[in-house]
User: Fold this.
Amino acid sequence: MKSYNTLSKLLCTSIALLSVSFTTLAASNDNPYGLIEPGHLRIASVGDSKPYTFTDASGQFTGFDVEFFKNVAHRMGIDKVDFIGQDFSAIMPAVANGQYDAAVAAIGITPAREKTVDFSTGYLAGYLTVLTRSDSAVKNVATLAKHRIGVVQGTLQENYAVQHFTQSDVVRFPDNNSAVSALNNGTLDAMFLDYEAAKSYADRFKLVSAADIPSFDAPAGIAIAKGKPEFKAALDKAIKAAMQDGTWKQLYQKWFPGSPMPKQYLPGGQ
Assistant:
């Protein structure tokens, strides 16, 4: 009788363990990318980086990165995508600690950032611009010495300015709008930002470019938390497909009319 009870207990335990294993497997299959909520992507971004990511008059996120990422997500079978605005310096730490599934905001891939998050394959490259007022003494890179130049904290522009504009006083801001405001009111002599964003601000506030600097060594990628190989593989596959069928090219021409297109992102390397 005692042996029968022992065998019965062992059998029940085995069945319970198998039940847990199948439940775990089912949960994994339901959420292969390790998202906060299966089938729903919560994306950290910035709302003032036109034409990459910005909010329109109705408060909705739009821009090249937004449309491109939604297309990529659709190819992965996900159409529920929410963009949430953050200060740029906060978005990668927030992704790393699991507050968001990914960060999308023309984020350059650098070795320093790869210590905190993983990145998809690169999908965008461009130029950097020194933006200033028409009455400013800053006319080119050489004349930046001993002047105050604004950057958004945590960006590639901040890293580049600190490294290359060593005789300038680099002033950090949480976002582009506050830096442009300081430039307009004379607190800054110039601002260092992305080429495409600079074009938009120049048009809106009658500002001018003092220099355009090529920057193809840190292409933009989608930032995700470390330890999610299935998520990264799916993103990379969808990004490649969007490039090969011409979707990337179509969106680039829409948001960056007249700007040069890197051949590596065009169908067949056109």
The two ends are 79 Å apart (CA to CA). The helical segments are 2-30, 64-75, 88-96, 156-164, 176-184, 195-205, 229-244, 247-255.
